[in-house]
């Protein structure tokens, strides 16, 4: 079940990669100081320009959300303004893949915990059980004492599942699965413009190593665009 | 005559079961550990911070040796003290393992990562499992 869902998530990744290979053809003119860039992952729409110029590609964005973290503080899109964040879905009593996943994410966290531009966001997919005190205990047991660096967040069930879809880390209720939920164990890397820029299998050490390597690539891109943002409004 | 033949057959059966016991059982325990336990307790039995207790160097394995077969079979929840740290999460039970598989896993765990604890026979594990009605006689 997990495998299957994962394959689907990876499927969208390949679509994402496909779009990456198409991209250079469309944007070759602005490629002067182009360094390595992460792909945009997810659905995209090509919008004809009203002026008849080259069409714009519009990528799927993470919807507006309002969550509450282990400190009882609100977590919204604004929480991640000018930052990149890494997200996953878990639940505190998850009997299958979560411990492995969270220990891998912990590895990423250890690398970036002193960099305030990199934030972590874990969503519980079992809000009925994972109350704020449960989340706080879980975070502390993982060794995360500063909630603003790694949010363990809850929201009504529908919100969480809709977000899981947006982050392409599909999580769903499954009475047959151990613990009553399936989820893929994927991590998503999000840029400040609410775009998914990477999906990684959180159970695979090599994939998580790739995430560790790609975070600086995205940070670099963000710094570069904010430097030119004054000149050119996107 | 007939009983002699039966005894012979039974003897052979026991012999082949025993041969099985002493051949690659260590190996089976290791493989089963990797598929059934490592995702939580870690490949090196290291556990996960204060969330999942370690197995490597865990005093619990020695102190609660007789309770471990039922712990694997039925799972464990509620506060539990391992090496002076209180853990409080849920470990699911394992109905999918036979008595002999539980034996092999426990023997692996009791002897791995520097652990030097007493091992079990299958019969002992089956008897210990009777306490929680968890023996499947296999």
TrEMBL record, chain A:
Ranges of residues in domain Thioredoxin: 56-217
Record key words, sorted: Signal
Pfam families named among the record's database cross-references: SCO1-SenC
InterPro entries named in the record: SCO1/SenC, Thioredoxin_domain
Signal peptide range: 1-31
Transmembrane segments: none
UniProt protein name: SCO family protein
